[in-house]
């Protein structure tokens, strides 16, 4: 605040605020702004999670503020590293902010050097509508909110796929709450460079597959498939990578499997049924001889089609990539609205007011601003839509930019101010949401309440970590 404002405020409230007075300070010391009854403090935003705002002040000390409904936010980006001013009632003693009640937070944005895009590369560990977990070559895991991010997956979203995340803001340790993901891709030079840096630690141990999984000739999901392991199959692991992949011996050769599908715990031995007691059988009368049967004529209607999907392996195997010519079905294209996306890659779409679930683990995907509930997408596949889970999906793309206030997100309120709140989704994304101009259909945005937010994506800025609500409803 300006100096004149403090002088006027001091006169009205009859406070002695030496730091804002026009009189010369004769005490010989400079008053600490953080000790004022009504004051402000400038700093660099570190994080805003669980209703707590953390900044680093000019003395390089961390200050944590609990944000309540009394606080008003004036936000630009809400990115880690932004310059912020916290205005409060009460006192701050040292780094103790317990007696400070925040009335306003002004986010002034970041410095030019801090606002530039940064990047991180690793393997995909988990993926859902609103977040993804990435594991880097040094074994660290990062959970990113991906709401509103452009996403292009050439090799699908199978765990173990190498991805390149471009973001703004600053990651503190493994805390990504202060960053905004701008774009994600699995096809870049950065990915290839990180793959070349993988270090493998030698081991020699028996492991068992926890589910059906592909065996590949390299530690990436776009490598050649050498075969598959069925659940409970045993192999020898000869090496581990910090990014999650395992090296194994398969049919006498070196191969790779993503480590989340392997365990060192042997499955329980199958129980053998007790032999049935022998019962005397009555003698059977002799059977009359049967007439000879004519040889089959080769009629295609009476023989099994060698390419029949019913005679092949499970098409729903997350590790399998189908051959476009296998099914014999024509390619189909449908448009629908996202209902859900589960962690195992099952996308449910509302197509003509009916829900259909598709496995999109290996499909090429291209989203302008994420795959939020309510987004309109186009899906291409082969197979029967009545058996959509076993259809072979080739592509999933945005039907349009999805900015017409139909994208929704559900979660738990972690903290709220006069004009914004923090929302934590069930898949570990954390969003700062502005309610300026929004229709609020709940009694109050209290901490712990469950709400569904209809987002106004037309106001979202790609470099900003602040989202805008068009409407807030009870879950």
TrEMBL record:
The keyword Signal belongs to this UniProt entry's keyword annotation: yes
UniProt KW rRNA processing keyword: no
Composition skew (Low complexity), residue ranges: 274-330
Segments forming domain SH3b: 203-266
Keywords (A to Z) from UniProt: Signal
Region (Disordered): 266-331
Record's signal peptide: 1-23
Protein name: SH3 domain-containing protein
